[in-house]
Design a protein that fits this description.
Order of helices and strands: EHEHHEEEEHEEHH
Shape: globular
Structural class: alpha/beta
Low-confidence stretches: 1-6, 8-25
Largest sheet: 8 strands, mixed
């Protein structure tokens, strides 16, 4: 694969979480799902809803965004999911997939002019990997890197909005992107009154 793998993060003074060993994290199995699977989407939604705040979950992680990118814009989308392996005794040494412990949404952006890119997520300010611990995050990114190599993309771009996720394959970090957030009041008239008169006129012209 040519080009750089890029992780895009917002400026954050919090140091990256320390790496943990495979033994600490437990056995993890990753899977890549391209076709729509309502049952898995529901499981991912439940995982995201229950995930602690410091996991970096944001509205852009909602699996329904992948349907928008796929059906509305024609992009190829992927759900990269990590599950804990649950040990079993029959047969000895075997294991089965347990609950979800990590999720990374991806979309392929193709352009005749600029080439192919694998992004989490395009047209949205944020996304990236959500994981229970750094080992799971690394497993998700390993899978994303494999996809990037398989499709020979120009670069892999992860738009994390919380702590930067450290990974040996992510060769560049970019902090120049800025996200502006406007708190929405309960009363729409209050919001309308606080808009500049020029903005209100532009809104009226669009009606």
């Amino acid at each position: 694969m040519t080009g750089d793998r890029v992780t895009l993060t917002e400026p954050n003074e919090t140091p990256p979480r320390p790496a943990v060993s495979r033994e600490q994290a437990g056995r993890v199995k990753t899977q890549v799902i391209e076709r729509t699977d309502p049952a898995v989407e529901a499981q991912v939604g439940a995982y995201l809803s229950a995930a602690p705040r410091d996991h970096g979950v944001c509205p852009e992680h909602d699996p329904r965004w992948l349907a928008v990118l796929r059906s509305g814009l024609g992009h190829r989308t992927f759900m990269v999911i990590a599950r804990r392996q649950v040990a079993t005794t029959d047969p000895p040494g075997a294991g089965r997939c347990g609950s979800i412990c990590g999720y990374l949404p991806l979309a392929m952006v193709s352009s005749h002019l600029f080439g192919r890119f694998l992004v989490s997520l395009p047209y949205l300010n944020r996304a990236g990997a959500v994981a229970d611990d750094p080992f799971v995050a690394a497993a998700l990114i390993d899978e994303a890197v494999d996809l990037a190599d398989r499709f020979d993309v120009k670069y892999l771009e992860l738009r994390h909005h919380a702590d930067a996720v450290e990974h040996r394959a992510l060769g560049k970090r970019v902090d120049e992107k800025v996200r502006m957030v406007l708190d929405l009041p309960d009363d729409p008239q209050f919001l309308w009154a606080n808009l500049h008169s020029k903005v209100r006129n532009q809104v009226r012209k669009g009606d």
